[in-house]
Amino acid sequence: MVLPLYLIFYFIAVSVSKESCDSPLVSALPQSAFTSSSELSNSHGPGFAKLNRRDGAGGWSPLNSNKYQWLEIKLEQRTEITAIATQGRYGSSDWLTRYLLMFSDTGHNWRPYRQEDSIGAFSGNSNADSVVMYKLQQPVIAQYIRILPLHWNPNGRIGLRLEAYGCQYKSDVVSFDGSAHLLFRPDPSVSLADRDVLSMNFKTLLNSGMLVHMEEHSGHSFTLELFRGKLLLQLRKGRGSSADFHPLVSLGSLLDDQHWHHIRVERIRGLVNFTVDKNTQQFQLPESWSHSEINEISFGGTSAAGLQKSHSRRNFHGCLENVLYNDISVIERAEEQQLSITVSGNVSFTCTESIDVPVTFASPGSFLALPWVSGGESASVCLQFRTWNRAGLLMTFDLQHNAGTLWLYLSEARARLQIHKTGRIMTDITAGSAHALWDIYHSLSLFDSKSRIHLSLAPAALRCPDTEGGSGCRNPFSVFQGCMRLIRTDGALVDLIRVQQMLFGNFSDLQMDMCGIVDRCSPSRCEHGGRCSQSWSTFHCNCSATGYSGATCHSSIYEASCEAYKHKGNTSGFYYIDMDGSGPIKPQLIYCNMSDKAWMVIQHNNTELTKLKASSGINQHLAHFNYSADAEQIQAIITQAEYCEQELSYHCKKSRLLNTPDGAPFSWWVGRSGEAHMYWGGAVPGSQQCACGLQENCVHPEHFCNCDADSKEWLNDSGLLSHKEHLPVRALAVGDINRSGSEAAYRVGPLQCYGDNNFWNAAYFNKETSYLHFPTFHGELSADISFLFKTSSSSGVFLENLGIKDFIRIELSSPTQVLFSFDVGNGPLEVKVETASALNDERWHHVRAERNVKEASLYVDHHPSAVQKAPADGHIHLQLNSQLFVGGTASRQKGFLGCIRSLKLNGKTLDLEERAEITPGVTPGCPGHCSSYGDLCQNHGSCVEDHSGFTCDCSLSPFTGTFCHKDVSAFFKPGTSVTYTFKEPYKLNRNVSAQSSSIYSDLTLRGENVSLSFRTSQAPALLLYVSSYYREFLAILLNRNGHLDVKYKLQHNRDAEVFRASGRNLANGQLHHLIETQTQLFLIAESGEVDPEIARLNALGFTGCLSVVQFNSISPLKAALLYPDTSPVIVTGPLSESSCGSSLPTNPYAAETTHSLADHVGTVGTGEPIVNAINSDSALIGGVIAVVIFVSLAALAVMARFLYRRKETFQPQEPKAEKTDDSPETPFNTDPNSQSIISDNQKEYFI
């Protein structure tokens, strides 16, 4: 592209101008441009304070070296200042070591320059000759420069030479008196409909007023308004008095300080960037406002009718500078009186300012004492004040005629006056409302009748009024920290400049001729929606209801996945998931189905089977799915997950699906990126097939989908979509439903994902000199680092990142101490956590460190945290530039030996395994999780190692579930029975003698363990009966009084005995647990009848509920309910699993706890589908919650003669399906060589 020559010259000129804004500004000034608070002698005057000059005494030195001295320079005009350089007084021991830099347009109302928005002081010199230069982070526009010494060489005096650098500044200004405004009409032929830019500067002493009003052709308008010291950008719909205002954004604070503030509003189509000074907010306009053109712009206000619905209801009173609209200078056109500008009212093209001399009470030791003698019959005191604090003493003085001492102070943001005399409160008056004081200046007036008063304005370290007897005084109120201005006594303005020159009154630790108030909540340092509040010296963040914690609401209180919740021992339920921790993605309530995997289930608005019928005129049905999580959350879930799936089912009757093999598809679905996909559930991406086509088992082989056969019978194509990059299903288009007789039904299941690639991402460091390196960590204002480690080493550095001076490091400094150290420019700080037990125990330990502008904290496991407060008004930016070293340091010293896992920095997980693959001395992954998580397996479940985590083997436990925590219960009625048959561990011949049988007596049934839980209201009742094929038995029963008895016969030559286990009524409908161990039960080769009492109880039948039944390692009820096809059980009558035995406590981490998720993915058989038969997960969960938890126990006893016959005829059932040996739910050993199944001599276990 060829640019016009003048445009090229313009770019070059601008470039050179900007790059060369570093010309000396002070060296050519006359001595009259220099003033100071005092001078040691004529040769030490301020005019000699020029850099590298030796005139006079070689620089400026004041008469006294104290913190009330200053040096001031007046530049030729308002100038852009970009750098400052200082030097000590030549040939002396006089130099500054620390100073404040101040700027002003008028020589009054000074403004301090702040680095990083918090540091006001600059470091000075270390000798008299070297030059220390600072390039200002933000250039300053001013005509006056003032240096305030803070510290100087303790062996010398204050001494200074300096230079400022910068360049000329062009300024076009206009002044408004509160009733005038400029009306600008842009040329429509050159306006850009898709982009508008408005920029300008303003200054004012009033806190409210309309700055800009923009009208569009459509009748909509934009309003930029100053209200209570903040800028509001609003939209207004319609014209006239009925117009409706829509506030968009509020930005800035304390803007009524008579200093210049910069505004920029940029609209690019519907996106708006709104900037005030250094703070920018971005927002989206409503669609109806996105493409409108500006018709006219009013600056400084608008007509009276346009002010009626504004907040301020007044025009702007103050000055505007360099007003540009799409690079058009509005002020220049107004001065030239061009036709596009209309001036209304009294407008001046100069900016005249009233002299405003504020004073700042910056510390608890600040005070101002003014002598005052009132000559009239009455006296008055008036002032204006501004503060963040809700309490503090404003003034005190003695009343006339010894009437007491008056105290005027703030209490709970209200003004309160008390008169004290001889220890009593004579008067107590409260004025004002309890509204916040921090928005604006407040005026305060006080009158008194004739008296001689000594007035003191002091919040603390009060200079006491003179009292007779010299008894002194004490400030009983909180200190005042804030600004005061326009102090008047008897209507006369107090000359604070004379006070500053020590010609009048007395003061201590005041900042004269400036208001040093700082808004620490603008911009807010509170993250994630935390609400900011402040006092004079600090700010506070209210993190309630945000889901985040910490001093700045930085760290998430939720886990990043269901996998993480599982490994804290949580069971199925709803949990808040925060995928990126402290990152911008919001937490989301998600159902976690804790089975063998930790499934995350994301619902949408229609997971039910939806039926469609032929409809004339409708060629296609389009369904959109809105998920419970937003797009950003879903993408993070899918990216982080190990595997994701979503069921996609289509049931058809004369309704084709993909029109295979060669036709254009009638139906398709839309994935995450908005692309249409032509393959169906169970097939591979891009195949234009269904699952049956991939498996080559479609109803008609010439088609790749069952439904493409166009059959008049109901068919279906169902399967799982598992290509993560395409999930979730956002929309579904169904065609071929407009023919006569066409019917169809579809279902899109919830998105389900398991696994957490970040949670198990680990690296093993096997050499002290090895480390992984990553790009520089950027955590300037907020930094959080979390990880897990395990080691046998006593010390080592987990990670380190360096800057020029700044650094951050976390290390194991001893077996019982983790150390977090860093430096942001205020000197090294350390945070330590000591633990009672050693951390080098080869178990996983969790570390989380956080550093923000308020504090640094360190957490190790569940030990008490350590917190280190940040220094007040110190450096806040962490500036790093080296690589991030993990597992070691740049010096290769103090390296870490062991495993580091799930390393996250500001919510982003570092891929340790990827780097470990290519790094010597580091191995990806880290096995051995049962040592840390094995305790989560409950009820005798055993921990089994997995590559990514662990599982709980529940095969030897009567419980089931992820952690063997879920009881297995069933409700019995008369006629229901469960028979479990198992084999003796040794072969015995039926006709063997009792003597030979006794040889094996101590090898059989010695030390039996029996446990169960029951609930019943029936008495008497038989709960449990165990017998051999002979006459030995063990029975657990409730007698007629509901007492628990254990009846047993363990030897053939003795009668049955009864042990009374409980003397209270247990048939009370409550849950009871029974554990019996070390029962002696011997096998005797005799036969006979069942005990008469047992037979009688058996004949009564039983109604109740049984739970977690276990006999040694066998769980018969669990086998019958969960594995009836692969277990040696016989079930008679109806039997189904119930929650009647549940006694689990409420999960404290879950938002809502449930214990099953009956949303199973699978194909639907032939036949017409039943609409709503496939319920949504939420409906099923609600059903589970609605079940009344009632637990009872049942057992059915069977006669011994039947058992004996059963022994002869029983043949082991062939299992219908084999369960893998490594399954945690295998109810018994299926190995044919195992001793648990080796003989024909059997016994039976009945429930």
TrEMBL record:
Q: Which keywords label this protein?
A: Disulfide bond, EGF-like domain, Membrane, Repeat, Signal, Transmembrane, Transmembrane helix
The way it spans or sits in the membrane comes to: Single-pass type I membrane protein
Q: Which residues cross the membrane?
A: 1179-1204
- The keyword tRNA processing is assigned to this record: no
What is the superkingdom listed in this entry's lineage?
Answer: Eukaryota
- Keyword Repeat annotated: yes
Q: Where in the cell is it found?
A: Membrane
Give the protein name, as stated in the record. Contactin associated protein like 3
Q: Which gene encodes it?
A: LOC109094914
